[in-house]
Design goal:
Blueprint lengths: L16 H9 L3 E6 L36 H15 L4 E6 L9 H12 L6 E6 L6 H13 L1 E9 L3 H6 L6 H13 L4 E7 L6 H11 L6 E6 L2 E2 L3 H7 L8 H14 L5 E4 L9 E3 L6 H15 L10
Parallel strand pairs: 1-2, 2-3, 3-4, 4-5, 5-6, 6-8
Antiparallel strand pairs: 7-9
Helix pairs in contact: 7-9, 9-10
């Protein structure tokens, strides 16, 4: 079945990251997740201790490389596997684990410049917190953006400060907007991460997050499913019955509702979330990622809907 959605060359009814990369680079482009050994102000006591309640010891970099290996070795290991799967692939090194602007500028510059020198690299992705964007760092990122395809990813999770407090995020939505604006002022593309199913949030709160972000000048968004990992504070809270996890059916409905109110040109980098099988507490259904994506596709067809159908500029 053909798609009525304009930003698609498949049956997808939302603006996939694959489509975006293909339009920009004309070839297969893949991200390679790296762990540069950074920490986080929410771990070392600068803003808080223990990190966000859902965060594993790997700092949301569970699928990133081994921080004990040099960046080039991390990159080469993944590149070797991907090169067998897709010939002629180009790559975007993705600084994923922990907070990747939380270090002195000379340290950041050394690591980012090294990654840009790797073979077949066409860009750079940097995951960070909005409260870790010092002016000198953002000025440097602005320079990088003029030299390569840069995207800065901000972990927001929810626009609701009551949720931020509950998950120990240790910064407010107002602080997020300040960091976001610094990037936008320098024309740096921004990707925002949100999580559906956080403790205490109902459907309307999740929709408010989507509607609020629809007002911003974002390049892309990652919509994650809340999945709980062993050893986290959230795993303890779940075991104590303090909240419950979304069913697959609930999640699919919420994601489709959110897609309908997001701008059609906004790139959707992710529509679910999954943890390592051996460390996952739940939901078990999150491990079948392809099944979740297929259910989202089917629900949009059932509704005769697509990304942006209910978007109000």
């Amino acid at each position: 079945m053909s798609s009525p959605f304009p930003y698609s060359d498949t049956n997808k009814r939302y603006h996939t990251f694959t489509y975006d990369l293909k339009q920009r680079f004309g070839c297969k482009v893949a991200k390679i997740s790296l762990d540069a050994g950074f920490t986080c102000p929410n771990i070392d006591g600068t803003r808080g201790f223990g990190g966000c309640t859902y965060c594993s010891a790997k700092g949301s970099g569970d699928f990133a490389g081994d921080k004990n290996l040099p960046l080039r070795q991390q990159f080469d290991q993944v590149r070797a596997m991907m090169g067998k799967k897709w010939a002629g692939t180009k790559y975007i090194p993705y600084f994923q684990a922990h907070t990747n602007t939380y270090a002195p500028l000379p340290v950041l510059r050394e690591k980012f410049e090294e990654a840009l020198s790797f073979p077949d690299v066409v860009g750079l992705a940097i995951a960070t917190r909005a409260d870790c964007l010092d002016d000198d760092v953002v000025d440097y990122l602005g320079q990088l953006n003029r030299r390569t395809s840069l995207e800065v990813e901000l972990g927001l999770q929810s626009v609701h400060d009551v949720t931020g407090e509950r998950i120990n995020r240790c910064h407010t939505y107002a602080e997020f907007l300040q960091g976001y604006q610094k990037l936008v002022d320098r024309d740096i593309p921004v990707c925002v991460h949100i999580i559906d199913g956080l403790p205490g949030e109902d459907r309307e709160m999740m929709m408010q997050t989507a509607r609020e972000l629809a007002r911003l000048k974002l390049h892309s968004i990652k919509i994650h499913l809340l999945h709980v990992l062993k050893g986290t504070v959230m795993a303890q809270q779940l075991a104590a019955g303090e909240f419950s996890l979304l069913s697959r059916e609930e999640y699919v409905q919420i994601v489709c509702d959110q897609l309908e109110v997001l701008p059609p040109e906004l790139v959707i980098q992710r529509l679910t979330g999954d943890g390592e099988r051996e460390s996952l507490v739940g939901p078990e259904w999150s491990l079948k990622k392809l099944c979740v994506l297929n259910e989202i596709d089917k629900e949009l067809v059932r509704r005769d809907s697509w990304q942006g159908k209910k978007y109000l500029p």
